[in-house]
Amino acid sequence: MKVDEAIHEITRGGLLTERQAEAFVLREIEATPRQATADEMGISVNTLDNTLSTARKKVRQAEATVKAVEEARHEDLPSTCGNCGDQLGGSWTVIDDDPHCLDCAGIDPAEI
């Protein structure tokens, strides 16, 4: 993937500004030296460092969010109702820390 395409893809999600994405791609992906990156971007090395620091922080936060979502997806979900023992399927609720099927919880599935 070209540098411009990578920058576009990264900014498309709204996580990084175009400037932050450019600094990130050049330094972290392309491994362009600091001074060369600053020169290419037309900014000082100090500005590059600040921009890159912000980009790295945002990327770390996004990675932590993705990790939390993945861990939540892989939690052991209950398989049976804590009241009647029936299989829960896709719709269930928790009452007093126990999973319950909608029938035992008194919930009409049509109202969900």
Strand-helix topology:
Blueprint (H helix, E strand, L loop, with lengths): L2 H10 L5 H12 L4 H8 L3 H29 L18 E4 L2 E4 H4 L7
List the main descriptive attributes of the protein structure presented here:
112 residues, Arc Repressor Mutant, subunit A, rod-shaped, single chain, mainly alpha, 56% helix, 5 helices, two-stranded antiparallel ribbon
Tell me the distance between the termini: 45 Å
What is CATH's topology name of the largest domain? Arc Repressor Mutant, subunit A
- Helicity, in percent? 55-70%
Strand order across the biggest sheet?
Answer: 1-2
Q: What is the strand content?
A: 5-15%
Mean pLDDT: 89
Content-based structural category:
mainly alpha
Q: How many whole angstroms does the radius of gyration measure?
A: 24 Å
Number of beta strands: 2
Q: Low-confidence parts, pLDDT < 50 over ≥5 residues?
A: none
CATH class of the largest domain: Mainly Alpha
Largest sheet: 2 strands, antiparallel
Level-2 CATH architecture of the largest domain: Orthogonal Bundle
Number of helices: 5
Order of helices and strands: HHHHEEH
Would you kindly provide a written description of the structure presented here, covering whatever features stand out?
56% of the residues lie in helices and 7% in strands. It has helices at residues 3-12, 18-29, 34-41, 45-73, 102-105, and strands spanning 92-95, 98-101. It has a two-stranded antiparallel sheet with strand order 1-2. Helix 2 (18-29) packs across helix 4 (45-73) and helix 3 (34-41) packs across helix 4 (45-73).
